[in-house]
Amino acid sequence: MSPERSGEDREDPRSQPFMCSFCLRPREETGVLAAAPTAAICRDCAAGALKLLEAPRPAAPGPLPATPWDALSNDELLERLPRVAEARDQVEEHLRRWVDVARGRNISWAVIGSSLGMSRQSAWERFRSGVQPHSQT
Ligand SMILES: [Zn+2]
User: How far apart are CA 129 and CA 93, in angstroms?
Assistant: First the structure.
């Protein structure tokens, strides 16, 4: 892949993450997202994380934080399931992009599969079709 191609990909809205990996809100709702290869974070979540990191440390460690689902009712839990599935899709899309880059560098399916802990055949079957653009519907 040429540097020009990479520049085009960055400007293509389809190459942007479509949801915050932390609050699971869509980009249309959060505004700009800071993206890493496997996650994206919105301004609100980044501000919350910064506040948490900058808070003074307690003298003694407190109880471990509850898992995200502990405080949710069954309805709230069920409402979030599709968003968690969308977060999975976003990670899958990122993985496909990385595999596409590896293939663009002529790295073999065997080496890619080995790096992912799968066979050459499994890697090829899973990633041969390349990046599937996320529908913005
Ligand atoms: Zn967020």
Answer: 12
